[in-house]
Amino acid sequence: MPPTPSEPIDDLASAARYLEGLINLERRPDVPYARYDLGPIRALLARLGDPHERLSVVHVAGSKGKGSTALLSEAILRAAGERVGTFTSPHLEHWTERFRIDGAEVDGARLAAAVERLRPHVDALRDEGPARAPSFFDATTAAALLLFADARVDRAVLEVGLGGRLDSTNVVDPAVACITTIEYEHTDKLGDTLAAIACEKAGIVKRGRPVVIGALPAEASEVVLARARELGARAIGLGRDFSVEVLAADATGIRIAYRQDAFAVEAALPVLGAHHASNAALAIACVRALGAHADAALAGAVRDGLARAALPGRVEVLSRAPWVITDGAHTAASARALAAALAELPPARTHLVLSVSAGKDLQAILAALLPLADRLTVTRAEPARSLDPAEIAAATRAARPGLEIAVVPNPHLALRAARESLADDGRLVATGSIYLAGLARRLLAR
After folding, report:
1. Is 258 in the same domain as 377?
2. pLDDT digits over 31-72, tens only?
3. HEC-encoded secondary structure of the chain
4. Are strands 349-354 and 211-213 parallel, antiparallel or unpaired?
5. I need a surface site. Which of 157, 171, 276, 306 has the fewest CB within 10 A?
6. Looking at 307, 327, 346, which one is the last position of a domain?
7. Are residues 256 and 351 part of one domain?
8. Total structural domains within the chain
9. Which structural domain, as residue segments, surrounds residue 191?
10. So what's the pLDDT on residue 293?
11. Whether residue 293 is found in the same domain as residue 328
């Protein structure tokens, strides 16, 4: 139960109970996209003294890669000597992952204090009626902005939750915006064409502020570039204004070469998957667009920051003997990227543990991942949002007859059984949803 009005929010558990008691628009299929509105969070922030106006923000949107780009931006900025606050979503294991200051998760007591400060203002707005009621994501975004302003960070890195135009984070006027990728996702809310989805993402572009753009489909790129021209925002595009080359990719990570105008740097990242090269390039371009660091100093920060970067739940290696890997791939493109990353590893008999959320392109995900599998366990990582494992199993049998399949609805049992049956020279890959990636980290990292 949520805390009563007289019960203080004084720890992480009570903060979580309060936040979870707010309407979570992203989890409500019955709530139309028109209900998404920046009015409630603007009213909430105004009551808190508009903490976001005291922040210099790197604002990152995209269909995929936005969380990685945010974390890599944080790594470079911290290596450049800046104090950085980073807000990402969703979390893999626990609430405090969403809120980072100086590279560390905010502790539970500090987060609880911020939520306690929010509560009377959230409750007052809820009393004004449903149209004024802040959502779960409004409240968590406001908590992050409050924490970062109180900590007087030099820079805040904010990852968009959903879309862009109507996302709670879009109250900021960023120093630089970034749109990583655009593909078909959340079509029930963002639109069923790439142009429509691009229009929602391009909502984070602000007048006179630079925007860094990844390699987008032509239909989407035209929309974003038109928005940038309309607002006089300098567009800095991957493949046009800057480039990245993968020099090496193996089981230890990747090495990249970045070039932009007269600026060039080579750097190593201890993460699997050549697809992270574009995320790293976007992060470098975002930091360079800030204009806060001379190129020589920035080159050193890129090398130092990326060498220490960690990307939890993104082709993350939990064990190497045997190989245990988890990844939150939940789109066709991210599943293909995972498959390409696994191809960089030595061959091994692979046990795939899979859960897929409802509304995802199951056939495309299976097309990318099934060729990797010697054995498959299907499960249900999140009861309210994941597909029935029987449905995944049926689709798998149609796509790849003869593959050994186990249906284990309980994700804890599925992961534990897969790990216990794994041979020393085998490989376990848990993927298909962020929920499963987080659970795999909790159960298998130890």
Report:
1. no
2. 666 667 899 999 999 999 999 999 999 999 999 899 999 999
3. CCCCCCCCCCCHHHHHHHHHCCCCHHHCCCCCHHHCCCHHHHHHHHHCCCHHHHCCEEEEECCCCHHHHHHHHHHHHHHCCCCEEEECCCCCCCHHHHEEECCEECCHHHHHHHHHHHHHHHHHHHHCCHHHCCCHHHHHHHHHHHHHHHHCCCEEEEECCCCCCCCHHHHCCCCEEEECCCCCCCHHHHCCCHHHHHHHHHHHCCCCCCEEECCCCHHHHHHHHHHHHHHCCCEEEECCCEEEEEEEEECCEEEEEEEECCEEEEEEECCCCCCHHHHHHHHHHHHHHHCCCCHHHHHHHHHHHHHCCCCCCCCEEEEECCEEEECCCCCHHHHHHHHHHHCCCCCCEEEEEECCECCCCHHHHHHHHHHHCCEEEECCCCCCCECCHHHHHHHHHHHCCCCEEEECCCHHHHHHHHHHCCCCCEEEEEECCHHHHHHHHHHHCC
4. unpaired
5. 171
6. 307
7. no
8. 2
9. 39-102+137-307
10. 97
11. no
Of the pLDDT bands very low, low, confident and very high (cuts 50, 70, 90), residue 303 is very high
CATH of the domain at 424: 3.90.190.20
